[in-house]
Fold:
Amino acid sequence: MTVLAAMLLFAAPATYAQQNVYSLPRTAISLEVDAEIECFHAGPYAAYAKKYLGIDARTEDASICRITAVRMHSSVEADLSQRFVAPASAVLPLTSQGLVCFASDADRLPESWRFPSAEAADFASRGVSSNFAVEEKKLYKTGEDGETVEVLQSLSVQKTPEKRAAEAAEIIMEMRSTRARIITGDTDMSYNGEAMGAAIQEMRAIEREYLSMFIGYTDRYTQTFRAEVVPDRSAAIQKYVAFRVSETEGLVAADNMTGSPVVLELVPEEISPEPVPSGKASKLPYLKYRIPAVCRARLYDGTQLLLETRVPVFQLGAEATLPLPVPKK
Structure:
């Protein structure tokens, strides 16, 4: 690849190719981010954990989003705000975007955005106790002889949350007690090694299921997110919110204000100025091109540095001219 190839770049429609219209290149920076989301679901009986089990339990749902990997890629595209007509003497092979077609790095990451939503807490399948209790209520009726008689009537009544919590705690303690009796042999039933192991394992599973209704449980899932930043040549400070991290939604777009910002900072290296042509050379036909600025790219989540690398950025570099030879008559 020649120097001219690297500086001019690719792309213009076929109609532009006939007119020798070309564009200067610009760089887009793509970020592919992996994160792990932890969602804690508080148990429905958390408020009664201290009373019935003697343990402290979290009473509110919470979620945490942790960035686990970041990959940075750069690609080049036509800067449509910088289009020029080349001198007639310049024979330029152009591609469909409007850039001189010497570079081959125009491939871009596919625009793929994934916003998986966390699952809601599900305690419906945990526990086997009924939500209703049968109570007997005394009713009084007047008989045919005019006397008042007492009648018992069974009614189905919904249990209070505390009542259900007390029953769940009772089942937990019963599982622990039964398991201890089996292990110590203090039971009327005899278990061989394999049967004892299976029985103990099943009781532990039941205990964990009921215990989760007091202490809650945690879901974990992963998220992959892609964001893109196109640096602005006119910006005084080269800092950009690339995306955001939301405790409730995970990785979200830069304009989603529910999350804290992850900032991309670019620090361009200095480029020496273009020599000023003199004499006949200054009157030659020329092409404009860009020399990319090699930038130190840093990605921050708050004060934490997630990634640091070097990347060339065309629009933050220097614009120069390339004299063209005058065709012989």
About this structure: Residues 1-18, 102-117 have pLDDT under 50 and may be disordered. Helices lie at 3-8, 14-19, 49-53, 161-184, 193-215. The longest helix spans residues 161-184.
